[in-house]
Amino acid sequence: MKMITAIIRPEKLEVVKKSLEKIGYRGMTVTEVKGCGRQLGMTESYRGKEYRVDLLPKTKIEIVVEDDKVEEVIQTIRENAKTGNIGDGKIFISNIEDVIRVRTGERGEDAL
């Protein structure tokens, strides 16, 4: 099993979520986060004074999938989160040792 963590633009969340649901993935964790990368933030003005906003709002999606479904999920996220501009985000893939469903005690892929 793999944990796919995608950091995307907040305005792309709904389209990514609906696309993941279409391919059978409804279980996910979504968190509002802030971060920076190559986008380097932006300059804003408040009461006539300029200041730099280094940490921009992003959305983090975490989803655990079976090993043979990883590429399908990654492609779905990429196709639907992409704008072609700096700041589109990143996708991280991590190994998951085990999963346990709290309610039933099911383990592994049965718990997904």
UniProtKB/TrEMBL annotation:
InterPro entries: N-reg_PII (IPR002187), N-reg_PII-like_a/b (IPR011322), N-reg_PII/ATP_PRibTrfase_C (IPR015867), N-reg_PII_CS (IPR017918). One of its GO terms (molecular function) is ATP binding. One of its GO terms (biological process) is regulation of nitrogen utilization. It comes from the Archaea. The modification O-UMP-tyrosine is found at residue 51. GO terms for cellular component: cytosol. Pfam families: P-II. Keywords: Nitrogen fixation, Phosphoprotein, Transcription, Transcription regulation. Could be involved in the regulation of nitrogen fixation. PANTHER family: NITROGEN REGULATORY PROTEIN P-II (PTHR30115), NITROGEN REGULATORY PROTEIN P-II HOMOLOG (PTHR30115:SF11). Belongs to the P(II) protein family. This is Nitrogen regulatory protein P-II.
